[in-house]
Amino acid sequence: YYFTRVKNSEFNYTTNPSFTDNTGTLNNDSFIDNPTTFITTIGLYNDANDLVAVAKVSQPITKDFTKEALIRVKLDY
């Protein structure tokens, strides 16, 4: 088992291109002060920063500046 802690100040924004236009401006003004994202996938990396495993959550986890998450990943191989 691996545990991943997501602090309230982390992962509140996304790199999804639908959030911004071509100039980098947010498409929806409500994202400026109160962004809400959803955690759906966790990547596990080794010390050389190589992706070695990918985990999908059973249901998306809502994430914003008021929430933290502790995610347990079970690795079967």
Could you characterize what this model shows?
It is globular and about 45 Å long. It contains one helix and four strands. The strands form two sheets. A two-stranded antiparallel sheet has the order 1-4. Strands 2-3 form a two-stranded antiparallel sheet. It has 77 residues and is mainly beta.
Report low-confidence residues grouped into runs of 5 or more.
none
Q: How much is the average pLDDT?
A: 86
Broad structural category:
mainly beta
Give the SSE string.
EHEEE
Largest sheet: 2 strands, antiparallel
Radius of gyration from the alpha-carbon trace, in angstroms: 15 Å
The share of residues in extended strands comes to: 35-45%
Helix content: under 10%
Please list the strands of the largest sheet in the order they lie side by side: 1-4
Shape annotation? globular
Distance between the first and last residues' Cα = 12 Å
Quickly count the helices.
1
Count the E strands. Answer: 4
